[in-house]
Amino acid sequence: MRVTISRKAHFNAAHRLHRKDWTSEKNNAVFGKCNNPNFHGHNYGLTVSVTGKIDPETGFVLDVKVLADIILEEVEIPFDHKNLNLDVPEFQDLNPTAENIAVVIWNKIRKRIQPDFDLEIVLNETDRNFVTYKGE
């Protein structure tokens, strides 16, 4: 019997959608106001879901406190109130789109979750725009 547990979190961060190898005109055409050279910010919502077998001893798939600590250490502390382009090493050469942010978060959390568990990340950039990533 496989069950999914989920934990919600949030962080506030600034970013700029921009490719260094493109002209200003192309960046503006593709990314529009999200290419603002002074950056812009979002109040990101994050849902992390882990699916696995229930441990017969504890009754947990994974202790939610453990999942909360992983999210705090891997996402909230390094991303919250940061400029993703300037302050977060993973985005030094990676455009911090919602899609790329979700994949980076998934990779950071994946290394802390048992390999036989499935992991899904849902990242809300706004109330209407969100990305889901389950790994490859």
TrEMBL record:
Broad EC category: lyase
Pfam families reported in the protein's UniProt record: PTPS
Entry-linked InterPro entries: 6-PTP_synth/QueD (IPR007115), 6-PTP_synth/QueD_sf (IPR038418)
Secretion signal, residue range per the UniProt entry: none
TM segment ranges: none
Enzyme Commission (EC) number: 4.-.-.-
Cofactor(s) annotated in UniProt: Zn(2+)
Pathway connected to this protein: Purine metabolism; 7-cyano-7-deazaguanine biosynthesis
Top-level taxonomic group: Bacteria
Keywords from the named record: Lyase, Metal-binding, Queuosine biosynthesis, Zinc
Reactions catalysed: 7,8-dihydroneopterin 3'-triphosphate + H2O = 6-carboxy-5,6,7,8-tetrahydropterin + triphosphate + acetaldehyde + 2 H(+)
Cofactor note: Binds 1 zinc ion per subunit.
Family statement: Belongs to the PTPS family. QueD subfamily.
Record's protein name: 6-carboxy-5,6,7,8-tetrahydropterin synthase
